[in-house]
Design goal:
Chain B: It is a peripheral membrane protein. The structure holds 2 protein chains of 2 kinds. Chain A is an alpha+beta fold. Helix content of chain A is 17%, strand content 41%. The longest helix of chain B is centred in the first third of the chain and has 26 residues. Chain B is mainly α. Classes of the chains: A alpha+beta, B mainly alpha.
């Protein structure tokens, strides 16, 4: 399956290579560089590149290309999904996944990669098991290791791989037993010129942070499970129980994990919590344009909208912008033509607005499209789909855990066409 | 003065870092400039060797870490091999692991020295701890040294019957490694694969199927007996194994079952209802799905809920290739969900949806809006979405789509805008209602400021006009006017071709266009020159009075052009249209040749016909056959014998068993006499639950085992497990398979395998009955 992996940074240097079968020369990456050159932007590099003897499958994350070398037919998503899992694992291990971090921890990275694949076939991809095999580096451990000469490699043998719940490590102990669940919903929407919704859907996830001793068995039930008609589960969730009773029953992995993600599709009605009033106009003959945006709350169920950031990619003809915001700060980058306005909280009594003028390149004609406006925002304590957790119960252990549930709504890909 | 002061301070500023550099060089070993690199490398490796030979573990570990760092950067560290390999038996686990990493990388290059390490692994293969055995096998098989093939073979054979499923899993991985090292071992390896395929552990299933696919994908016969087991294990196999198994089972099913698609649901509108009913009846008579086929579809369906995109895609392709057309729709929701994922996942999923949406529009029509393009999408995602939108266009949604397309045309991403114009063209040809609207819209675009947009519009309009040239004189005139401003060669060529082709409809303009272009001939692109020649030729044939001289002039220019192509074309045209004594019979037909009715170009999706590759494969993505692609066979006309999948039960049937069966079957008969079928089922299942109680393997169903605990006292029979088989088998024969399915759905522990395996038992039971 996967022959080799190359990590390539933004400058085009191969800074790590790993081979699981016979060594593939790094010159194979030249085909990748060629494709990269052709696709002016990093995100336009095709994920699958055929070369005479190999196929290069790549993912681009954190400004690093992870390029896997394949020799024969394999489902491309298999490789891509695995590469993303690798990135997630690095992130889990080192906090951030950057070139510097990987270079600093090259030995751990190598050991982890060794465990994740055997002969190019995934062996251990659960972070719980990996962490049992190879302990993630922490500052404390590095210090201790240098003094005592002990190692990163787990000295016990990993038994998790053999158990019936391979995602949970064994012998977990905590003094404070706690389980937190975050229900996070993102709204993806396209709003047209006149303010009506073209398409809107909700992408929700339930992220959990479970620190419980022993082998707890949890059940989570919802007030309105009917909302969840399109879901995907962490492998720990018992599917049969969900099918019959609409209850999530599972033995959780230790630590952070994504329990569930769901999708409320475009066919349902989605409440749009904010609106944008805009007046952006270019005049044909003059080199000045008018620019005006106002952001206001719409259906927020009484909650405040915060963390609002407005970004917009202006047409190439715009030279500069002179704007005055009623609140927050704004930046216009004359090179990339990106306008970004950090609004902060929306006060319904005094709506934030950004007004001013744009100066256009003299002589250039009026751009034929007004820029689209991208919006980010956050609303705490609200799941916009109306999803509510009913109760969380624990079986199998004697102690009483501390439980917490948090809701949040965010903007996903929220676009307003002007 | 001030200038001096400045220069002085500059010097001072420069001096400081120089000093620093000197200080730095003195601390490290001095580096002579000329062969510095080479020297330092040797030095470095020298001290690494010393560290490896030291008695302290910490020094060794440090050295190993540095060596692994070198390996990771792709630097050559092979000369350290002897020093490293000595540490293979180190007590320190981390050193050991790093030595393994090093060994796997370099053993191939240093085969003789690598042999030194073998005995250590051989010893470890006998270790009482399963994890040590497994890792020893893993490393041993990863050392690609041909001499040790027999040792590997032996180790694999032994490991394949190890008690620990984890070791067996590693044995399955080792099979592939050995096969790639020495393909001659194939026969022996197939034996091991056959043995491991029978394994019941979920840990092993994925890995051994992977080995099967790599070593002997043609030996489909090995799967028969394990088919039902694999179907049942599937949900519990780890996600990567699931993908491999699903792909394999897709191939398998296509060879073993008959097509569920022959049932055509094309309803004749004028047919009366009765006829329809008759037809349905017939359809039902001719096709019933093999229960094994149904089992596969049923057991893969829950996996659509997997968090792993590869699994979801694998199930989707299985449904696409195997499910009856009416059922394939269930995958669309999950596929659309994947679109929220990363760019790369989106790319692959969209490609597959594009292929699907050409053939079965209905599947994705409800999700039309999920494919709307955002300005932040990368261009390749945008064009794929556009492709799907175009495929989904129909009379009902075209007006919404066209409005959406209008926004796209204005996009700042010009490449995408051009693609949108193409898409509009395709919609216009496919849906006749909107052809005129589209055409008008495209004509409006001709006054766009962006050249690429205009050029693309011209090209598309040209294609559209060709499909229905009847009454578009106005548009052609409009385009002739544009010729003065457009500079993009393709667009200019397209306009010229149009005018030439329909010169009889614009008799006044055409000669004038030729006059203008003749003037600029020398400065035109080759593409345009060819079309000027064509235009001249066509006008000469239709309107020689006005254009004879002009054409002659153009032909003369062409005769001395720099390009071969144009000179050739000129010569050809001259011979053809200007009659002289040498020209043969052809010139008589010149008009027919030049002004023949030309078929309109078909505007087709690039994803048409891509589904001859199995969906979700690399070959599908690239649209060429990748190495190692295994083709899906066509459905067989007649299904091969389904009984090959039956599994016999190992133990023989004891004598006392017969009487007991009678008892049970009479119980069953009583039940089946009652009219309330629902109750009957419940009654039986309760009985089953009771008998389940003492069964040692009842682990998988929690409810039933907890239920049965209370009733365990009432149990009196000596062979509860077998009695259950019998009930099920009786049920299976007496009633439709659906009843069995009903039971298996509720009591997962009573899995299919057992039902089927008990079928053979039933043969015995029938004698007593």
């Amino acid at each position: 399956m996967i022959h080799s992996l190359f990590l390539i940074n933004a400058a085009g240097d191969i800074f790590l290579e790993k081979h699981w079968k016979s060594v593939v020369s790094r010159s194979v990456c030249d085909y990748f560089f060629e494709a990269q050159e052709r696709a002016s932007e990093a995100e336009n590099v095709p994920p699958v590149i055929p070369t005479p003897h190999h196929y290069l499958l790549s993912v681009y994350r954190h400004k690093i290309f992870f390029v896997a070398v394949i020799q024969s037919e394999v489902p491309p998503l298999f490789v891509i999904e695995f590469l993303h899992r690798v990135v997630d694992t690095f992130q889990d291990y080192f906090g951030v996944c950057s070139e510097v971090m990987i270079k600093d921890n090259v030995v751990v990275v190598y050991e982890v990669l060794e465990e994740m694949l055997d002969n190019g076939f995934p062996l251990a991809t659960e972070s719980n098991i990996l962490k049992e095999l190879i302990k993630p580096p922490t500052i404390l451990r590095t210090v201790v290791n240098t003094i005592t000469g002990s190692t990163n490699v787990g000295d016990q043998l990993p038994t998790g791989q053999l158990s019936v719940v391979p995602w949970r490590r064994t012998g977990v102990k905590y003094t404070n037993n706690e389980a937190y669940f975050d229900v996070i919903e993102e709204i993806d929407a396209i709003i047209d010129k006149s303010g009506s919704t073209i398409t809107a859907e909700i992408q929700g996830v339930i992220d959990a942070c479970v620190k419980l001793t022993g082998m707890p068995d949890l059940t989570l039930s919802f007030m309105n499970p009917r909302l969840l008609d399109d879901v995907s589960f962490h492998p720990c969730v018992r599917f049969k129980r969900w099918e019959s009773e609409r209850i999530l029953s599972f033995i959780p992995p230790d630590g952070n994990f994504r329990l569930l993600s769901y999708h409320v599709s475009a066919q349902n009605l989605v409440a749009i919590p904010v609106y944008v009033k805009h007046n952006i106009s270019f005049r044909d003959s003059s080199s000045l344009g008018r620019f005006e945006i106002t952001v206001g709350p719409k259906q927020t169920m009484g909650k405040t909208v915060e963390g609002v950031i407005v970004t917009s990619q202006m047409p190439k003809g715009v030279l500069n912008m002179t704007l005055t915001p009623s609140q927050g700060t704004h930046v216009f980058d004359p090179v990339t033509k990106l306008l970004s306005w950090d609004v902060g909280k929306i006060n319904p009594q005094k709506l934030p607005s950004l007004k001013g003028s744009m100066s256009l390149q003299a002589g250039s004609s009026k751009p034929d499209e007004n820029p689209t406006i991208n919006l980010q925002f956050k609303i705490q304590q609200l799941a916009i789909s109306g999803l509510k957790v009913n109760r969380l119960d624990m079986y199998g252990e004697k102690y009483k855990p501390f439980k917490g549930i948090k809701y949040m709504t965010k903007a996903g890909k929220f676009q307003v066409r002007t | 003065m001030s200038g001096n002061g400045l220069s002085y301070s500059e010097q001072g500023g420069e001096a400081a870092p120089e000093l620093g550099q000197e200080a730095a060089t003195t601390t490290t070993p001095s580096i002579p400039a000329a062969f510095g690199l080479f020297c330092s490398d040797i030095k470095k490796n020298e001290d690494l060797k010393q560290m490896l030979e030291s008695s302290k573990d910490s020094a060794k570990l440090d050295a190993m870490k540095r060596i692994v760092g070198m390996v990771a950067k792709g630097k050559n560290a092979s000369e350290l091999f002897p020093a490293v390999v000595k540490n293979v038996a180190s007590k320190n686990i981390e050193i050991k692991k790093l030595v393994y990493v090093y060994l796997m990388r370099y053993a191939e290059e240093q085969q003789d020295l690598a042999l030194l390490s073998i005995s250590t692994f051989q010893r470890a293969l006998k270790d009482p701890n399963q994890l040590i055995r497994a890792s020893a096998l893993r490393v041993l098989s990863s050392i690609r040294v041909p001499i040790i093939v027999p040792i590997m073979m032996l180790a694999i054979k032994e490991a394949s019957s190890d008690l620990s499923p984890y070791v067996r899993k590693n044995a399955a991985h080792a099979i592939q490694k050995l096969y790639s090292l020495d393909p001659e071992q194939k026969e022996m390896l197939i034996e091991v694969i056959e043995k491991l395929l029978k394994d019941r552990s979920t840990l092993v299933a994925g890995s051994v199927v992977m080995a099967f696919e790599e070593v002997c994908p043609e030996r489909i016969d090995l799967i028969h007996k394990n088919y039902r087991k694999l179907c049942n294990l599937l949900v519990d196999v780890e996600e990567w194994g699931q993908v491999v198994i699903i792909h394999m089972l897709t191939r398998y099913a296509r060879t073993q079952f008959v097509s569920p698609w022959k049932v055509s649901f094309e309803k004749n509108f004028y047919e009366s209802d009765e006829e329809q009913k008759e037809k349905d009846q017939k359809v039902k008579d001719t096709y019933t799905m093999d229960p094994d086929h149904r089992l596969l579809l049923q057991n893969t369906k829950p996996l659509l809920q997997s968090r792993n995109a590869a699994v979801v895609m694998a199930v989707s392709q299985l449904y696409w290739h195997l499910a009856p057309k009416s059922e394939a729709g269930i995958v669309s929701k999950s596929l659309v969900r994947l679109l929220r994922s990363n760019r790369e996942v989106q790319y692959i999923v969209l490609q597959n949806i594009a292929t699907m949406s050409i053939q079965r529009k209905g599947m994705f029509e409800p999700y039309l809006k999920s494919f709307y393009v955002r300005s932040t999408d990368p261009t390749m995602i945008k064009t794929l979405k556009l492709e799907i939108l175009t495929n989904l266009a129909n009379e009902a949604n075209i007006s919404t789509l066209l409005r959406e397309f209008q926004t796209y045309v204005k996009s700042q991403d010009k490449q995408f805008a051009a693609a949108t114009i193409q898409a509009i063209g395709r919609c216009a040809t496919n849906i006749t209602e909107v052809t005129d609207t589209c055409l008008n819209g495209l004509v409006c675009l001709l006054s766009n400021k962006d050249e690429i947009v205009v050029a693309e519009s011209v090209v598309v309009i040209k294609k559209l006009l060709q499909t229905q040239p009847a009454h578009h004189g106005e548009i052609i005139k409009h385009m002739a006017k544009l010729l003065d401003n457009i500079t993009v060669p393709v667009a200019r060529a397209s306009i010229l071709w149009l005018i030439g082709e329909y010169c009889e409809r614009v008799p006044k303009i055409a000669p004038d266009v030729l006059r203008k272009t003749a003037k600029s001939f020398t400065n035109e692109d080759d593409l345009v020159k060819l079309q000027i020649l064509n235009l001249g030729a066509k006008l000469y044939l239709t309107n020689s009075k006005q254009t004879k001289l002009l054409t002659q002039y153009v032909l003369n220019l062409g005769k001395y052009d720099q390009s071969y192509d144009i000179r050739d074309r000129t010569r050809f045209i001259r011979q053809l249209i200007v009659p002289n004594e040498k020209s043969g019979a052809l010139s008589k037909y010149a008009k027919k040749i030049f002004l023949a009715q030309k078929p309109a170009p078909l505007l087709e999706s690039p994803f048409k016909d891509r589904d001859h590759f199995q969906l979700g494969t690399l070959s599908h993505t690239l649209n060429t056959q990748a190495t190692g692609y295994l083709e899906l066979s066509d459905w067989p006309e007649v299904a091969p014998d389904p009984s090959v999948r039956n599994v016999e039960i190992a133990e023989s049937v004891p004598d006392s068993f017969g009487g007991f069966t009678c008892l049970l079957s009479s119980f069953f008969l009583i039940c089946s006499d009652s009219e309330d079928t629902e109750k009957k089922k419940k009654g039986i299942s309760k009985k089953i639950t009771t008998s389940n109680s003492s069964d040692t393997e009842s682990a998988s169903s929690e409810e039933s085992s907890s239920d049965s605990k209370s009733e365990s006292d009432s149990k009196s029979d000596s062979e509860p497990g077998k009695s259950r088989y019998v009930i099920l088998s009786v049920l299976g024969l007496q009633h439709s398979p659906t009843l069995v399915l009903y039971l298996t759905g509720h009591y997962p522990s009573l899995c299919w395998k057992r039902i089927s395996s008990s079928l053979s038992l039933l043969q015995t039971a029938r004698h007593f009955w």
